[in-house]
Amino acid sequence: MRRTTAGRETCRRAWSGRGTRISGSCINGNVLPRETKNYVPIILALTLIAKDAAHYGISVDPEREVETDVVKPGRAIDLRLVAETIDVDVATLRTLNPSLAADGDAG
Fold first, then answer.
1. pLDDT tens-digit profile of 38-48?
2. Is 4 helix (H, G, I), strand (E, B) or coil?
3. Tell me, what's the pLDDT at 18?
4. Short-list 83, 77, 105, CA closest to 96
């Protein structure tokens, strides 16, 4: 789950000049946008629904698991060569392997 962009400093700036002390969260006032206030409750609700989708009348067809192989070459390999060998483009290879940073990356 990603963090919301409204942090402590955002709350402090939003409350400055209101003549009140910040006690607890700045969510209690009309300071933050509605989507920011509702971010966590929405995620929690979706989590509960996902755990028992049938109860809420939602049918889910899970995606088929993608077959993968783990290869540890032990030395730097040119990703262009790997991509050509397995018949995919380098961009796809990078997307599927985010830990690979360079064309000749250590395995």
1. 787 888 899 99
2. coil
3. 57
4. 83
pLDDT for 13-43, tens place per residue?
665 655 555 445 555 566 667 777 778 788 8
Q: Is there a single domain that holds both residue 47 and residue 80?
A: no
Q: Are residues 89 and 52 in the same domain?
A: no
Within-domain flag for 36: yes
Residue 101 domain boundaries: 66-107
> How far apart are the C-alpha atoms of 6 and 38, rounded to whole Å?
12
pLDDT in tens, 77-87: 888 888 899 89
As a whole number of angstroms, the distance between CA 31 and CA 8 comes to 13
Three-state DSSP class for residue 78: strand
**How many residues would you count in the chain?**
107
**CA 53 – CA 3 distance, rounded (Å):** 26
